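User: structure tokens for this one?
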Amino acid sequence: MKISLATNYENDLVEKIKSYPIYEIYGKLKNDIIGGGRPDDELKDIETIKFEQHVKKVRENGIKFNYLLNGSCLANNEQDEEWQEKFKEFLTYLKKIGVNALTITNPYVMQLVKKHFGNYFTLRVSTFACVDSFERAKYWEDMGADIICADFVKINRDFKKLKYMVENLKRAKIEILVTNSCIKNCPMIFTHTTSLSHASDKSLRKKDYEDWSLFYCQQIQNNNNEEYIKSPWVRPEDIKYYEDIGIEHFKITERGFPTEELVKRVKAYAERKYNGNLIDLIQGHGFLDENGERKLEKLQVNTRKEAYNEIKRVRGLGQPRIYPRHIYIDNSKLDGFIDFFVNDKCTNNCNACNYCKNISKQIITKNEEISEYLKELYNKYNEYKI
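Assistant:
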């Protein structure tokens, strides 16, 4: 097992995870010349000196530092010669301070890196590139990719396809993103990743970003809890099935989480066991406030922005969670769940199959008060949005 872990830029994180099988730590600045996978208003504003010191500490502990250049859209800036010069200067800076791996979504960017920096950086393909087949993976391998993070919304549970990719790529390794609760075959994936890229690109003049794509998917899941089971996360207990087909690289999020939450995730996957609410491992938000959960307090909502902020407050988006989760997924009851996929019984025709729906009825407990309030808030946000 080789874990790629998000960093929150706290040095105690490195001390607390270095005994686990972490081969790299990844992160990026709040905003830079290339946007990324999180809006800048949800990221810490790291001073340059702290960033450099953190990279140094990571490298001193024998761990790679992977800088995210994972914006999926650069507004065609990548073809501009002046932009390219700034980009090369930035990469030269990253190389100087010890960054030795990059995550890339845009093929043009990978070609630029290979042309000007050769084999210095380990090159990883972001899951935002939506690599969902051997053919796509081979194109990236031929461009110089070393590690390819598979399209998690499509093929995380397609063991037949993943095995074929692992066995037929000549050099590149396949990685799986394990901690994610996006909906299966998400219709928003391209719109969402593009929007996120622009929301953290300092070269663009932008207004405050509203993550409406995320809210679209959250509303679907809140109304149809089986979508949580269909979501292509990977339980700690099921890592072995991926190792059986030759996958050894696994990615754990979340950059905005405190150290103890990141350590909890690493520990669960390294030990291949977790007792509790699976949501606590797979969602990119909602870590609990240090004072614990409180009784729900509803607020009057009259505008789009108020509805947006209230959803964030209730769910713990970009801030600690103060209320109970709207659902509880009992991870201990999911033993054997993955066999359906390992044995190639999934046809991807969910409309004609109730496997995940039936599982959801057995293991998901809904907090009706929170769930109904969120339903009301999502409806209000949609009314105000357009």
